[in-house]
Specification:
SH3 type barrels, elongated, Elongation Factor Tu (Ef-tu), domain 3, 6-stranded mixed sheet, 2 domains, mainly beta, 170 residues, 2 helices, 12 strands
Length: 170
Amino acid sequence: MLKRVKIGKISTPHGVRGEMRVLPLTDFPERFKSLTAAFLEDGRPVVVESARPHKQFYLLKLKGFDTPEAVMALRNMMLEVDRSAVAPLPPGHYYVFDLVGMHVFTADGEELGEISDVLKTGSNDVYVVEPKPLQDKKLPQILIPALKSVVLEINVSAQKMVVQLPEGLV
């Protein structure tokens, strides 16, 4: 399981005092308002001195990054937090980062593949499953609707999902 979770992507400097634009990559962008510590994707810990919303970005000031030039060195880096800092979800709800990489099995125990992405469609999410190659042949992705009638079990700690596929899906 992931130890850190990506919450934003550093974009460009804002002003001359070391503020930076950060594009939120989270369903909870308001988390930035109370953020005090984070990590750069290279593992360096950073202290967040201030954070405020600005258009589709958050403007963050990190301790020790006091000039636009210092901020430019961080451009396109991911900002991460410890997994333990992520808010718990109610039963039956899952973070995408917990689902990606999960192994998908049919109710009969046949492994279909691994979840590579989750598509947001409006009515329900769709799990994108990369099938296991069959005799050196690349099979097409399997798109599984995230419906209670299809997804029978999700076990995050075991990285396992059990599904009952609708007829004709595969």
